[in-house]
Automatic annotation (TrEMBL):
GO terms for cellular component: plasma membrane. This is Threonine/Serine exporter ThrE domain-containing protein. Signal peptide: none annotated. It is a multi-pass membrane protein. Residues 7-132 form the Threonine/Serine exporter ThrE domain.
Amino acid sequence: MEIIIHCLFSYLSTVTFGIVTNVPRKLLNTCGITGAVGWMLFWFTKNLESGEIFANFLGAIGIGLMSIFFSRRKKMPMIIFNIPSLVPLVPGGPAYQAVRSIVLGDYISGVHFIIKVIMTAGAIAAGFMVTGIVERLLKRLFDRKTTPS
């Protein structure tokens, strides 16, 4: 039951953010699927005790790969799928805790949360960087196969 709840709410949060950011209505479902896949990769990896940073990295790779697939299939830019799909992975809770700790004077705890936010954001960026590299490699590979010799 927990898997269904995570899948449903990650889908809904992605679709809702897609509505807020004016994603075309016909693409909301694919954005929701992309966000749900990214979140489920994150959630399963985190539950395997692999660490939250690595889980965010894998979630971002999943979102990136799904975005590449859907952008080619729907003939739309990847960013339409990337941005709303990231919402479930964004470290909003630790960012709030960092600000709260600093305001309350607990600087050690605040710095701990800031480092966690920075590492999470870096893992997400690295995941997208990896998918960008994979996309370029695949594009070169397919361009060589289709080019007449």
